[in-house]
Design goal:
medium-chain fatty acid-CoA ligase activity; single chain; eleven-stranded mixed beta sheet; GMP Synthetase, Chain A, domain 3; four-stranded mixed beta sheet; AMP-dep_synth/lig_dom; globular; 596 residues; 27 strands; AMP-binding_CS; 32% helix
Length: 596
């Protein structure tokens, strides 16, 4: 039997939500629970924990030999203070620090050192250095932020390093400095700079993934990050009793991994096992291996990560036991979780007698990131939860949908060197426009939570004027496929029917020829998927009439995808207009499968 460890406080705090209907059609929602007191910054909480339990494991990562390299709270604190002093001595505190490399112990030390002495951190997506062919996005980030120090751990990043700037590395990059070379014995100035930090000071400049637009540098202040962690502690009170243990791969260049998850460890006195696995066929087995050592208490992932891990847990009882043994929360965010995946996870947890709760939240880079949380039992995967304490949510009619807008202490003041963006980002009431559509799960009970209705910019209409909600239809299609599909792009704008371009799960890739023509068995399976979806819907906008398989994965450089797996629907439709045209061609081409 596997059960979560006992705790004095419950997993979830009972939500109490207040609502107010405005004459202009807006609906305002807020938690009746006020936001409690919090530290000035995450770094203040980190330093307090490092003094309270210096011998506790803080972070572990796999080394070149595949063994765990570990650092305690005390060791990381000492390294961060030494690096902070070295940065002060070399005059590297007037401009931001940009980190090119991924999650690591060095990355953590740099993050903490910079934040200690008030230097904004700019963590860049690894994909912009290693997966990009032209480094265009990275060059734009360097030009905008003008970093005084760049961090590139190994020679693989050398082509992406901006010329003429100091570089911190593990060695192998000409002219770079190592951590020891840049560090110095800390003096009183380090503590003094930390004591002078103010909530309004910028802690990080996080570039949005550009899922539906051009990436921009979002200002994350120390106060925003501290407020968001206090909000999470109030809705997940068990964190006050149990230092969180995480096994996590989510990149620190994104707000989910770098703010929500990492900061939860730093403010909760916990332990982070850096997962060298990924939600990809060649890498997911590393995650399975790491579970045996980490045995997390809370597991965070995107839906693609859960989808990759789930089959291994279903067929490997030992891995499932390691996963569920101490697990209190299973968490997904960044995209909708197909309902069939939710059901499989729930069944597996029941088989292992786990008291784990599945939950989610919603937010964005501009909200630190969490704005809502499902801190109550939920049975549907599209529920986003209710507003966190201290944040105000406005549901504003936009066309046929309700846009969710935000105001509160965890909301960004704006964008780095782009005051023009802030002018349009906030409405006349001071609420941040998010571009996401939601609905009330129960129109008569705001405490039942919000449900996701997609990105407003991605929706479209058919020639009949019928509105198609891409954010609703896409996860329904994936769920109906029962694991056959990994993602889909919904098509049919200004056309007579809703269609889709889809990517197959790697286990089924061999069932298409080089021209994208499915074999007979796959055609039958795809037709059955569309039939199951049609049986659930009630109109032309809720079914897929035709689909075609894409062989080429979504491309990062062209904006079709982000490095965390979000597929930009409009970018794919525009770049692959020839494939979209096939979906409406007559007679039906062999690459296209119609609804029977």
């Amino acid at each position: 039997m596997t059960t979560a460890p006992p705790a004095c406080r419950p997993t979830f705090a009972l939500p109490h939500i207040q609502s107010q209907a405005c004459p202009d059609g807006r609906l305002l929602l807020r938690s009746a629970e006020p936001l409690g007191p919090r530290a000035t910054s995450v770094i203040h909480e980190f330093r307090a924990h490092s003094e309270a339990h210096p011998e506790r494991l803080l972070v572990a990562e796999r080394d070149a030999d595949g063994q765990w390299a570990r650092s305690t709270w005390g060791e990381v604190r000492a390294q961060a203070d030494r690096l902070a002093q070295g940065m002060l001595d070399r005059g590297l505190t007037d401009r931001p620090v940009m980190v090119l490399s991924g999650n690591s112990r060095l990355h953590l030390v740099v993050t903490l050192a910079a934040m200690t002495v008030g230097v904004p951190l700019v963590p860049a997506s690894v994909a912009y250095s290693l997966q990009s062919t032209d480094h265009a996005k990275l060059r734009a980030m360097v030009e905008l932020t003008d970093p005084g120090l760049m961090v590139a751990e190994d020679p693989a990043f050398a082509p992406a390093v901006a010329a003429g700037r100091p570089v911190l590395s593990q060695g192998g990059i000409p002219g770079s400095m190592t951590l020891d070379e840049l560090s110095a014995e800390p003096r009183a100035e380090v503590d003094l700079r930390c004591a002078r930090l103010r909530p309004e000071d910028v802690a990080k400049i996080l570039f949005t993934s550009g899922s539906t637009g051009v990436p921009k540098g979002v200002l994350n202040t120390h106060g925003m990050l501290a407020a968001n962690q206090q909000q999470m502690r109030q809705v997940w009170p068990f964190l006050l009793d149990e230092p969180p243990v995480l096994l996590d791969w989510l990149p620190w260049s994104h707000t989910f991994g770098g703010n929500h998850n990492l900061n939860m460890v730093l403010t909760g006195g916990g332990t982070l096992w850096i997962d060298d696995g990924r939600p990809a066929p060649a890498l997911i087995e590393r995650t399975v291996r790491n579970l045996a050592d980490a045995r997390p208490t809370t597991y965070f992932n995107v839906p693609a990560g859960h989808a990759a891990l789930l089959p291994h847990l279903e067929r490997d009882p030992a891995a499932a036991r390691a996963f569920f043994e101490r697990l209190r929360l299973g968490f997904f965010a960044a995209a909708a979780l197909p309902q069939q995946m939710w059901d499989r996870l729930s069944r597996l947890a029941a088989e292992h007698h786990s008291s784990m709760r599945m939950t989610t939240s919603w937010g964005l880079t501009e909200s630190s990131p969490a704005a809502t949380s499902a801190h109550f039992p939920i049975t549907r995967s599209d529920c986003l939860g209710v507003p966190l304490p201290g944040i105000e949510v406005a549901l504003v009619p936009v066309g046929e949908k309700l846009e969710v807008r935000l105001r509160g202490p965890n909301i960004t003041p704006g964008y780095h060197r782009r005051p023009d963006l802030a002018e349009t980002a906030f409405d006349e009431h001071g609420y941040l426009r998010t571009g996401d559509a939601v609905a009330l799960a129960d129109p008569d009970d705001p405490a039942a939570g919000l449900v996701f209705r997609g990105r407003i910019a991605e929706d479209f209409k058919l020639a009949t004027g019928t509105f198609v909600s891409v954010g609703t239809l896409r996860p329904q299609l994936l769920s109906a496929s029962a694991g056959l599909l990994t993602d889909a792009v919904i098509c049919g704008e200004n056309g007579d029917r809703v269609t889709a371009l889809v990517w197959l799960h790697p286990d089924h890739a061999h069932r298409c020829d080089a021209d994208g023509v499915p074999d007979a068995g796959l055609r039958a399976d795809l037709a059955a998927t569309m039939a199951r979806l049609a049986a659930e819907g009630s109109g032309s906008s809720q079914r897929i009439d035709r689909l075609a398989v894409l062989l080429e994965p979504p491309a990062l450089d062209t904006g079709e995808s982000t490095d965390k797996g979000y597929v930009n629907q409009r970018a794919v439709r525009e770049r692959r207009a020839d494939k979209v045209a096939l979906l409406s061609a007559e007679p039906c081409p062999p690459q296209v499968v119609p609804l029977a």
